Amino acid sequence: MSAAYKEDEEDWLTVCLKYLLFVFNFLFWVGGAAVLGVGVWTMVEKSNYLSLLASSTFAVSAYILILAGSLVVVTGFLGCCAVIREQRSCLSMYFFLLLLIFLIELVAGVLAYVYYQRLSDELKEHLNQTMTENYAQQGKETITAAVDRLQQDFKCCGSNNSQDWMLSVYIRSEESGNRVVPDSCCKTITPDCGRRDHPSNVYKVEGGCITKLEQFLADHLLVIGAVGIGVACLQICGMVFTCCLHRRIRMDPY
Question: For the stretch 202-234, what's the b/e string if a residue is b when 16 or more beta carbons lie within 10 angstroms of its beta carbon?
């Protein structure tokens, strides 16, 4: 009688573990969708500013999240199949895929955190040089468009202030048409509006575009890091449930 009770108890625990894994898979898919969404959103909506960064770490973190999110879709499907079929081999593969995605997301989170720590120094060192040396130059159309959008989106002018443009290759050339700042500095863009840098005409923001871009990127890096590490921690629960169910299922007869 005690042996039958013990067997029933083991069956009950196995059923509980299977349902727990089903619930985890649902949460896993939701988390994967969040990871994939953040990665795609970062690359599609914020890619304009990537050409202004000296390092590719920001973009790499987003690409890693896209890869991890895509793997989640496949892994979640495999997890459901493994639970339904109760095959140890499928559960083993599921566990190792969870571990792989865990490591990928952890790397993305750590990269985002490390880059967050040195973001300010990189922008202060490179942004002004990028803007003044590359704006409106041949072959630098991507940077030119990024600078124009940066100044309009954040309502700023110049890296630190509008006076930074006085050292610009473009402003000091004849192509500028006697402008003192690019037209994208103007509060209302009209032809040749950059010829006058009066506060009523152009943006005069304390800290310039560096401060605005730094805050913008810092906020997004925190989102990338939080999503990556958060979903990675969720996967630890999945790996624990998988190991427990793996131990309770008999060896495959094949």
Answer: bbbbeebbbbbbbebbeebbeebbebbbebbeb
| Cα–Cα dist 160/123, whole Å | 11
Measure CA 151 to chain center. Answer: 23
- What mean pLDDT is predicted for residues 143-172? 91
DSSP for residue 173: S
In sequence order, the 6+-apart residues with CB closer than 8 A to the CB of 196 are 180, 202
Q: DSSP letter at 156?
A: -
- Whole-number Å distance between alpha carbons of 237 and 58: 29
Q: How far apart are CA 42 and CA 65, in angstroms?
A: 10
Among residues 194, 197, 200, which one has the least CA distance to residue 182?
Answer: 194
User: pTM to 2 decimals?
Assistant: 0.71
